[in-house]
Amino acid sequence: QARTIEGLIKAFGARIVLIPHVVCDFNEGDDDLRYLRKVKRAIASEHQDALSLLQSDPGFVGAKTELVKCDLVIAARMHCAINAMAARVPTILVAYSRKAVGMCTYVYGNGDWVIPLDEFPSKRLLKEKVRSMKNHDSQIRDYLDKRIPEIQQEAYRPLRRLSEVLGDGAP
Fold this sequence. Notes:
The protein is mainly alpha-helical. It has helices spanning 2-12, 32-42, 59-67, 78-86, 98-108, 123-135, 137-166, and strands at residues 16-18, 51-53, 73-75, 91-95, 114-116. The strands form two sheets. The chain has a three-stranded parallel sheet with strand order 3-4-5, with helices on both faces. A two-stranded parallel sheet has the order 1-2. It is globular, with a radius of gyration of 18 Å.
């Protein structure tokens, strides 16, 4: 993963921000911060200036504050992906389970912006997806500007239906 990040820095002159989404003091296997510190240490010294790591748990609002500053997000955590897409930031989902494929298809209407976790180290595949996303940035942002409000309205559908069933007359 460190080599993959280095490849992005080299290919795009990218500035990379590593944002932990789950910080867990009692379970190292579920602690993004410890893991991302290891990744950062593995990055070659000549690329360290292009890399930063949030050194604490930013919480939901803090993470969103950082995500909205990004041109593009590559997210392995579902909450990170949802947070970024809701902020209309083009997002590539790294799929360690099928739910990333489902979320990508639900939001984007296709699975184009998913990379299976076992293919993430493929510098070529990731570069192709990043290049394509960067080339279609304005179209993706326009799409998200339209799609996210639709998704937000869909979230209220069960409440409206429940209200109908209960007959309380609420919209």
